[in-house]
Specification:
The chain has 233 residues and is an all-alpha fold. Helix content is 78%, strand content 0%.
Length: 233
């Protein structure tokens, strides 16, 4: 006997999917933004600056375009890998890149790198070069200067970048709709599906849940940023 779907039955799973996907994406994007921004600080040549500038162009592109640009090369890579493994072992490894969250996280990285770079570079610009020179004069490597001097001073900028990326990923729809693995949904996708069927009342809880899930890191990070700013005065 057909059982009517309960729109609220999977809300906890949808909220968890959205939350951990946004958390992982924000960690990846901000980490790469730190590396790229520090690369410019260490070697501000035209080629490095241009490369970082190209890395930040994704925010100007629609999510659908980025999704298509992601799925094509990753699907090609998956099929080459499947052929290679099948040739030597006779087994099939499946779609490791294009059929998992790897493709989605890659698209998020391309899409939201610009906003993260802006926050991190703004924070790095406030740190005087004399801090780098002092660290290097004490025998620190470039990595130790970044980890022991810059990152503690950049705490507010890093948390701000993570917050922006988290909220953007949480509500991102086009790339998620195209690249999500089978049987994997987020709150944004679910709200879109229900709204497309003109089930606006059923779509309202999913939409409100996006706001509620997004409020948790906003409150925590805002308090952390405020305490960091207060302690630095």
């Amino acid at each position: 006997m057909f059982k009517a779907e309960n729109p609220g039955a999977n809300f906890i799973q949808l909220a968890w999917n959205s939350f951990y996907l946004a958390a992982i994406a924000s960690l990846i994007v901000v980490s790469l933004a730190l590396v790229l921004s520090y690369a410019i600080r260490l070697n501000p040549t035209r080629s490095v600056t241009a490369s970082v500038g190209i890395a930040g162009l994704g925010y100007a592109l629609p999510g659908t375009i980025i999704a298509i640009g992601t799925i094509v090369p990753l699907a090609w890579l998956d099929h080459r890998l499947i052929d290679f493994v099948r040739h030597y072992t006779g087994d099939s490894v499946g779609l490791i890149f294009s059929g998992t969250l790897v493709a989605l996280l890659f698209a998020y990285t391309v899409r939201f790198m610009a906003v993260s770079l802006g926050a991190v570079q703004n924070g790095l610009g406030k740190i005087k070069p004399s801090m780098d020179m002092a660290g290097r004069s004490l025998g620190m490597s470039s990595f130790k200067v970044l980890s022991r001097i810059h990152i503690p001073l950049l705490k507010g900028s890093v948390l701000t970048a993570m917050l922006i990326v988290f909220v953007d990923v949480l509500k991102e729809l086009p790339a998620t709709l195209v690249l999500r693995p089978f049987n994997f949904n987020t709150l944004a996708v679910r709200a879109f599906e229900l709204a497309s069927d003109e089930r606006l009342i059923d779509a309202a809880p999913a939409s409100l849940m996006i706001v509620l899930v997004g409020l948790v890191p906003v409150i925590l990070l805002s308090r952390s940023i405020a305490s960091h700013i207060g302690s630095s005065k």
